[in-house]
Specification:
Length: about 375
């Protein structure tokens, strides 16, 4: 007879695979339901493309977690950021420097396909993880299916969504000038553009995330590559010279969302949410995957530290996980939402107020350092 699973993880993306590896390390038998990858193209989050153009900003805490699993990419695919420049639309500017904060790097820009491949390879060689085509009974089911989770709806979990009426456009670009390991971001008239350095310390390519209104997003997607790049040169003030599009363009709708419950029971069996299935935040600070990896690290810790007589589906145990993460995620979500709302206002008084605030924050000394260290995953 087949041995039953301790845990069934629904969703085999970065969050699901990381959790599976952490739990197998605890000698738990894990079933990992493999889902076909979907990468948004144009305005459909369900349409699959041949190339994934996404890149994630991962902080020191996320790096340490992935290194513990021996799944951290090499320097060519995890570009260390030495400084960050954030510009407003009326002279406001904030700068962060790794040397000023006395850390080796502010964050790392990680190539998503490379990280996914390394996690998949690690899963393949872990005998306590079994890849499944469909969910199987288990003491605990963990839902890591992303923001469009079907299991969340099946289990009757309320997912409160606040749409931003914006889309994020992602692409890869080759730059005339090397990026010098500087991450750059512009807030301008309701739009947010980020240049994320790729290709290692000497690289001259960037991944972009450009948050724009829905109607303008479609117009940008319909432009020729040359026209699209000219728009980017203008939006980025020509800081990296001429730009060349070297990938397809993808886009997806932006939203803030929060599940009303992160743990519970369905048909007598325990379940828990993690990652985008539990929460969505605006990508303006690049914290989405960091939050998801924080979830799985907290869940794995809760299971590791459980009393010997508690099962992995124990309700009090799962409540500990929920309490340990929900407050932090709610705080981050509220912060990202507040910034998005502030920079989406186009009137002159709002513009003056936010740029005044940026200038004050740039001069705030210890406050600025504290915020930066929080974003990097340091307590």
């Amino acid at each position: 007879m087949t041995q039953p699973f301790d845990i069934c993880i629904r969703g085999s993306g970065i969050v699901g695979r990381t959790l599976a590896l952490l739990l197998a390390r605890e000698r738990l038998r894990v079933g990992l339901v493999s889902l076909a990858p979907t990468v948004a193209k144009n305005d459909s989050p369900e349409k699959t493309t041949t190339a994934d153009v996404r890149a994630y900003a991962l902080n020191a805490k996320s790096r340490a977690l992935l290194e513990s699993l021996r799944c951290w990419p090499d320097a060519q695919h995890a570009t260390e950021i030495l400084s960050m420049q954030v510009k407003g639309d009326d002279g406001g500017e904030v700068n962060f420097s790794a040397s000023d904060l006395q850390v080796p790097g502010l964050t790392w820009i990680v190539d998503v396909p490379v990280l996914e491949a390394q996690l998949a390879e690690a899963v393949r060689f872990q005998p306590l993880i079994e890849l499944l085509d469909a969910p199987q009974p288990a003491t605990l089911t963990v839902i890591c299916e992303g923001k469009t989770s079907s299991t969340r709806a099946e289990f009757g979990i309320d997912f409160e969504v606040t749409p931003y009426h914006q889309r994020a456009i992602a692409a890869r670009l080759r730059c005339e000038t090397p990026h010098a390991q500087i991450a750059r971001q512009w807030f301008s008239q309701g739009e947010i553009l980020a240049f994320l350095p790729m290709g290692g310390p000497e690289g001259n390519s960037v991944a972009i995330v450009w948050s724009v209104e829905e109607g303008r997003a479609q117009a940008l997607l319909d432009e020729s590559p040359d026209e699209f790049c000219q728009q980017l040169v203008a939006a980025s003030e020509g800081c990296l010279g001429q730009l060349t599009l070297i990938s397809e363009r993808s886009a997806w709708p932006l939203q803030q969302a929060q599940a009303d419950r992160w743990v519970g029971r369905h048909d007598g069996k325990a379940w828990a949410l993690a990652g985008d299935a539990a929460h969505n935040v605006h990508p303006l600070a690049g914290q989405g995957l960091n939050l998801g990896l924080g979830d799985v690290a907290a869940l794995a810790t809760a299971l590791h530290e459980r009393e010997y007589w508690r099962s992995v589906g124990d309700e009090k145990l799962l409540r500990r996980y929920e309490r340990s993460r929900k407050a932090a995620v709610l705080t981050m979500g509220a912060t990202m939402d507040g910034l998005q709302q502030l920079f989406s206002q186009r009137s002159a008084p709002w513009q003056a107020a936010r740029n005044w605030g940026m200038k004050g924050f740039e001069r705030s000394g210890l406050v600025k350092q504290w915020v930066a260290r929080q974003a990097m995953g340091f307590k």
